[in-house]
Amino acid sequence: MTNLKLATLNGSERTVVPVDSLRVGEGFTMIAGPCTVESEEQTIETAIAVKKAGAQALRGGAFKPRSSPYAFQGLGLKGLQILKKAKEETGLPIVTEVIDSRDVFWVSEYADVLQIGARNMQNFSLLKEVGRSERPVLLKRGMNSTIEEWLNCAEYILSEGNPHVILCERGIRTFEKYTRNTLDLSSVPAIKELSHLPIIVDPSHASGRVSLIPSLSLAALAAGADGLIVEVDINRDKALCDRDQTLTPSEFAGLMEKVRLLHQFMASQQ
Length: 270
Ligand code: PEP
Ligand code: MN
Hints:
Elements: E1 17-19, E2 22-24, E3 29-33, H1 40-53, E4 57-59, H2 77-90, E5 94-97, H3 104-107, E6 113-116, H4 124-131, E7 137-140, H5 147-159, E8 165-169, H6 187-194, E9 199-201, H7 203-207, H8 213-223, E10 227-231, H9 249-268
Parallel strand pairs: 3-4, 3-10, 4-5, 5-6, 6-7, 7-8, 8-9
Antiparallel strand pairs: 1-2
The protein binds phosphoenolpyruvate and manganese (II) ion.
Phosphoenolpyruvate binds next to loops.
């Protein structure tokens, strides 16, 4: 790994990222919520349901980086205000994407964790801006990026002074078409070998398929991931975005149960 200074393990302690009272990198962190904030009712009811099932943070996009300029781009400020209300209702900290460096400062008033999406992983001005923010950053792996490129992007954030970076493996592009992406599970132990930063897995964007999410989630936990970020929506069948990879609250509760059991088993073996 060339040119890495701050992101490498180098015998340093593993980083734990504080998000309100949550500590990402200790235990197994479950982040869940809709792909996109569509309405107050949808977001708050989903937040209440995922909290009840055991989620520790709420995800939801107010700014959506869509492949088509004609697709729904998210509610923007209104979406952030809804997320804030969901936090007031449930106490769950908010993970939400920022797609433009000009928005980092004001989005930080609503976000507890600033998500950098796969498409923006190498948006260096955005990385520098979140590097100057006080907020923790969830850095998704670009779909066409190597582990080394990904860690260099974490280095951009760390070198601006923000030590709170969480990596997120969300699958990479391969020739395989059955799944939306190919979950590169090897990146989880590889990151543990190379870096002190926590790493979580997104089985929703990695697979694009509800039916595969439980297996990939358990595999991620077994591989040593520090948590998961999963799409869950109370109105899954009407969701405007990523319906095929979004769990219903009851499917999520079932997943949580399996995760809990495997986590307990792993802890008992240590
Ligand atoms: C998302 O988490 O909503 C998202 C757009 O993911 P990715 O950037 O990994 O495609
Ligand atoms: Mn999505």
